[in-house]
Every structure is written in C-alpha cells, then in structure tokens.
Amino acid sequence: MRRAVLLVIAAFVCIVAGRRHDYMSGREKVRSLKGRVRDGVVAFGGDMYSEFAVAPERPYHLFLLFTALGEKYACEVCQQVHPEFTVLAESVLAAQEPARDGLDIFFGVVDFDQNQGAYGIHGFTSAPQLIYIGPDRTEDAGKNLPTKIELPANQIYSVYTQGKSADAMINYVKDKTGVDAAVIRSKLFAYAIAASVMLILGLIVRSVYTNFDLVMNRLRRKRVWLAISFLFYGLSVSGMVYCIIREPPAFSQERNGKITFFHPQGRQQFVVEGLIVGGYDLTAAICVIVMSQFAVTIKNGPLRYVILSACLAGFLVAYRQMVSAYAFKNPWYESWF
C-alpha cells in the first residue's frame, strides 16, 4: 500500500513538473496586449512570443512581422516594410472594427536582436517575414509548449510577391479577418511633396517663358529626341514598370554568399536582371542605328567596313545574350542561335 502511494505521488510530481507556471487566461492576454500597443503594434521580446503566439487560449487574431532592423544586418527590405506595417496596424485599429468572429486583432513586431528564439521556433533564417496566427479557443492547462512549429503556406505573407505597402498587406488582413479598413496615412508629407512639385513646375514654366526661343531651338535637335527615345525604349524592355509595381529585390544572395541576378521563375524578375536585359537591348539597338545611319556614310572604305563589322558583331553578341537569358527563364524555349 505504501509503495502504491509513493508511485502516485511520484506520478503527480512528474505531471506538475511538466507544466508551465504562471500562465495567463485568454482575457488576461487580451488585456495585456492592449496595454502594450505602441503606435499600433506590440513589440514581442523575450518570452512574450511563447505566451501570446504559441500557447493556447488565444481569443484574438495576430499578425506578426519578423524583422532584422539592426544596422549590422543591412536589411533594406525590413526598413521599407516596417513603417508600412505600422501604417497598416494604425489603420486597422482606427477602423475600430472587430474581426468577422467578433475577436480583437493585434499587430506585433518580432525583431531578431530582441527575440531570436521566435525565429528558431518557426525555422526562419531570413527577414522580413509576415505571418498570421489565428485564434485558439483551447483552454490553456499549462502544458509544455512545442519548440518547433512549421507554419502552413497560407499563414505566411510574402512581401516580395504580394507587396510591401500597407495597401497590399491590408488585403491579406481582410482575407483572414473580414475587416475592410482604409489605409490612413499622414497627409502632411503628401502636402509638402505637392507644394514642392508645384514650385518646381512654376520655376520650369517661368524659365521656358523667359527663354522661349532658346528652348525651342534645343527641342528641334534630333539628338535630344534620340536620347529620349533611348530612355523610353530602355525602360520598356527592361521591365522597370514591373519593378515599380512589384518592388522586387535588386538580386538574390544565397547563404554561401553567391549572388544571383536572374530570377529562376519566368514571370518574376530582379531589378538588376531588368537592367542587364535592357542593356542588351540598347546595345543591339545602338549597333543597328550606327550601322544603318552613320557607318554607311563614311567615305573611307576600310574604316567603313571596320565599323560595320564591329556593329554587326556587337549586335550578334547582344542578341545572343538576350536569347540565352530568355532560354534560362523559359526552359521550354529552344533557340536556333
């Protein structure tokens, strides 16, 4: 009998030892998060992540931005996304609209220097990462929490493909919570930009008016329009419109330090990739123009043939590089050249 009692006591001690202490209820978590909101977001440092994002009994929706804002990391995308995420959070909070299930919505920032453990829980090795953690109505009994959690794809928002702006991210919030909030930005900066643009336009108009004959003489020059044509042609063939809309990274860098300028997928591109392809196109175009408009007018026969040959070689090399780049992006394409 005594032995049985000792076994029961030992089992009870093991169960108690395997539980967390001082865990919070759902209402306490909501109250605590509301008290920690600063500029629309909550800074998740230390053990906060496990208690508010991993433990059960979470009667709220949670959007978390993983960043690496330290200067030593040189994460330019983090510097771009972080203020937009703050605008997103403030806009949703200003709407004062609960989620479709009536629960609160919180936004948090998990910086690498402040909480490396949270990165380890999800296996994140890069930043920024924007994730969504839905409500969990399971009662928190104080059990030990998992140390590794693999998030499904629909809980991870890609700032590279889905957008870095608050206007793009708010669609993700609407999809998860049903809240249709308008993005609210400070109009002071917009007014300052508008005033600056109007001032510059006024100075340009005044300058043109006082020097009208000189300006018209300059505009009649063919070289001016040739340069403008090259500019628009380069912008169109380099995919700069895509880069302005999608805001892709300049290039990709792997863990071993290898830099990749060309995106492996056919419908996506890096900024440097567009510049390289645009350079190939411009080189080919310039070679054709020089060969057809200038080289043929050279009276010196040997010099004329040398320039024609150089232009033809430049065109063929540039064209070959363009074909190779296209074949790399589209493996199904078989080139004859």
Task: Present the secondary structure layout.
Elements: H1 2-17, H2 26-36, E1 42-43, H3 48-54, E2 60-67, H4 76-95, E3 104-111, H5 116-122, E4 129-133, E5 156-157, H6 159-162, H7 166-177, H8 187-210, H9 212-219, H10 222-237, H11 240-246, E6 252-253, E7 259-260, H12 271-294, H13 301-329
Structural features, described:
This protein is of the alpha/beta class and 337 residues long. It folds into two domains: 18-177, 3-Layer(aba) Sandwich (Glutaredoxin), CATH 3.40.30; 221-329. It has 13 helices and seven strands. Strands 1-3-2-4-5 form a five-stranded mixed beta sheet, with helices on both faces. Strand 6 (252-253) and strand 7 form a beta hairpin. The termini are far apart.
Task: Look at the structure and name the CATH superfamily of the largest domain.
Answer: Glutaredoxin
- Tell me which CATH architecture of the largest domain applies here: 3-Layer(aba) Sandwich
Q: Spans with pLDDT under 50 lasting ≥5 residues?
A: 4-20
Count of discrete domains: 2
Helix content: 40-55%
DSSP, total strands? 7
Key features of this structure:
337 residues; Glutaredoxin; two-stranded antiparallel ribbon; 13 helices; elongated; OligosaccharylTrfase_OST3/OST6; Thioredoxin-like_sf; transmembrane helix; transmembrane
Provide a compact summary of the structure.
The chain is 55% helix and 9% strand. It has 337 residues and is an alpha/beta fold.
